[in-house]
Amino acid sequence: AQSVTQLDSHVSVSEGTPVLLRCNYSSSYSPSLFWYVQHPNKGLQLLLKYTSAATLVKGINGFEAEFKKSETSFHLTKPSAHMSDAAEYFCVVTEYSSASKIIFGSGTRLSIRP
Amino acid sequence: DGGITQSPKYLFRKEGQNVTLSCEQNLNHDAMYWYRQDPGQGLRLIYYSQIVNDFQKGDIAEGYSVSREKKESFPLTVTSAQKNPTAFYLCASTTGQGITGELFFGEGSRLTVL
């Protein structure tokens, strides 16, 4: 069975410092993994996705994530935080078994200190 | 531009009333989803539909109903049987091969029960 765990419910960093949002997953098959961002009172927007191609995935707004099968992780990083990065981030895992098997993590709220 | 339109953005309801949230997409996507989001929580699946005239219950379908009479439209009715309907509701869609594809989200509808 699939599952996804976002290890931090809240992360706070200073502007200009690196960002690390952690995500671990469990999957019986070859998973597809996604990171989405949600700004307050908005829908979710795709940041990046991994679908069995390159393990280092680059996304929008300078974010990237590395798929590590041995560690079952898909952590999201950004070298230098910007104030506009303050939002909620969701890690998502899917399996190619049923259209309903889209599993969302509980989310990580990212705060940026000036 | 293609996308998903949810309406209304804000809705107030008295206890005992049914309300219907609209979701329309012009992306030609086969699959559509309704999620509920509560503060500090991830997304929970209410209903999903992979094809016209067919839909399936998600994890929290009780007190909700849907229809899928047209490919573009997937309205959600929150019935009086839903005990705690105050929440943020998100509609999403994806292609038929949705497992490896991106979910596209609407801007959400915030329902408040007075």
Briefly characterize the structure.
Chain A is mainly β and 114 residues long.
Query: Approximately what portion of the residues of chain B adopt beta-strand conformation?
Result: over 45%
Approximately how much helix is present in the residues of chain B? under 10%
Chain-averaged pLDDT of chain B: 91
Low-confidence stretches of chain A: none
Question: What is the count of helical runs of chain A?
Answer: 0
SS elements, strand count of chain A: 12
Overall shape of chain B: it is: globular
Could you give the order of the helices and strands of chain A? Answer: EEEEEEEEEEEE
Total number of helices of chain B: 0
Note the gap between the termini of chain A: 41 Å
Mind describing the biggest β-sheet of chain A? 6 strands, mixed
Describe, in plain words, how this protein is organized in 3D.
The complex is a heterodimer of chains A (114) and B (114). By secondary structure, chain A is mostly beta strands. Chain A has no helices and twelve strands. The mean pLDDT of chain A is 91. By secondary structure, chain B is an all-beta fold. Helices cover 0% and strands 49% of the residues of chain B. Chain B has no helices and eleven strands. In chain B, strand 4 and strand 5 (43-51) form a beta hairpin. The chains are: A mainly beta (114), B mainly beta (114). At the A-B interface, strand 5, strand 6 and strand 10 of A face strand 5 and strand 9 of B.
